[in-house]
């Protein structure tokens, strides 16, 4: 059998497809692969010839995959995940010279909490590496971690499917945010007011039972839910324009939201236990050198993260 390619397809081209489908940018893919942009473009030309399809189309937001590329995405990512986790594990990972992009599954809240400190640490420890974030529906997170499309999922992932490894980083408590113009609410939000008012809840799946603060309903009974949204960062702006709405969010987020002149936070009048912020990864990458290094960096960065 010839070294690593058959009569038509050179398997050395698969890492190029893998990088382009994950990153969506030729220059950044070239950096991760330690190749020139022209070499990546040439490899893409050969892939297009073999599959008889453009595969990636240049748009204002990057290289967008065609339907054929999306069909190829999972099998090629599976192959590359196997190569990384089972064949290259013994090569080790030298962060000081490595050039690659780490991909994290994060919500918009997760980006606000994690990225500022993590970027600072990564620049110092791995100057040749960069970051990319994904926001995926919950059921798509495990396949992304299994294939290697994402390295870690960070946050309080309510209803996370079984089968992933996880590690607790720190805990957070909930508070409620209200509009300062709502004069019916004093310094203390009463339990009666809490259940009489209409709420905004954040749920990546769109289902109320998967909301980040669903524990409130589990412990104290159902609230009056007016709006369910997958975005944390729009919540204060909605409450600013709709003083009759309130929302229960992590304290760290509420502190940032209080920067809006129209938003203030009050204690949630329901005894809610702190929730854990964790990092999750797939068992296939438990012994992967780069993934292990990244998990250690995240753990060290947030192990003593203050409330």
UniProtKB/TrEMBL annotation:
Entry's Gene Ontology molecular function annotations: DNA binding; DNA-binding transcription factor activity
A Pfam family of this chain: HTH_1
Ranges for domain HTH lysR-type: 9-66
Keyword DNA-binding belongs to the record: yes
Domain of life the protein comes from: Bacteria
Keywords, alphabetical: DNA-binding, Transcription, Transcription regulation
PANTHER family reported in the protein's UniProt record: HTH-TYPE TRANSCRIPTIONAL REGULATOR LEUO-RELATED (PTHR30118), TRANSCRIPTIONAL REGULATORY PROTEIN (PTHR30118:SF15)
Family: Belongs to the LysR transcriptional regulatory family.
Name of the featured protein: LysR family transcriptional regulator
């Amino acid at each position: 059998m010839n070294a690593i390619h058959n009569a038509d397809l050179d398997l050395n081209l698969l890492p190029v497809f893998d990088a382009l489908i994950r990153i969506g940018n030729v220059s950044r893919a070239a950096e991760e692969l330690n190749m020139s942009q022209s070499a990546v473009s040439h490899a893409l030309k050969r892939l297009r010839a073999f599959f008889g399809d453009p595969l990636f189309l240049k748009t204002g937001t990057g290289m967008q995959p065609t339907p054929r590329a999306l069909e190829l995405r999972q099998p090629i990512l599976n192959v590359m995940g196997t190569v990384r986790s089972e064949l290259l594990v013994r090569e080790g990972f030298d962060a000081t010279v490595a050039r690659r992009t780490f991909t994290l599954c994060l919500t918009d809240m997760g980006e606000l909490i994690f990225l500022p400190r993590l970027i600072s640490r990564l620049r110092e420890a791995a100057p040749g590496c960069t970051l990319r974030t994904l926001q995926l529906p919950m059921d798509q997170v495990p396949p992304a971690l299994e294939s290697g499309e994402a390295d870690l999922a960070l946050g309080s992932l309510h209803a996370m499917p079984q089968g992933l490894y996880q590690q607790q980083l720190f805990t957070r408590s909930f508070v409620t945010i209200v509009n300062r113009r709502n004069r019916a609410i004093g310094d203390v939000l009463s339990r009666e007011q809490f259940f009489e008012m209409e709420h905004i809840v954040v749920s990546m799946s769109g289902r109320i039972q998967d909301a980040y603060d669903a524990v409130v309903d589990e412990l104290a009974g159902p609230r009056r839910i007016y709006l369910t949204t997958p975005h944390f960062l729009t919540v204060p702006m909605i409450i600013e324009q709709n003083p009759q709405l309130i929302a229960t969010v992590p304290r760290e987020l509420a502190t940032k939201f209080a920067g809006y002149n129209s938003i203030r936070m009050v204690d949630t009048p329901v005894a809610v236990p702190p929730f854990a912020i964790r990092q999750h990864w797939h068992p296939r990458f438990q012994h992967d050198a780069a993934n292990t290094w990244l998990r250690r960096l995240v753990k060290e960065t947030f192990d003593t993260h203050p409330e």
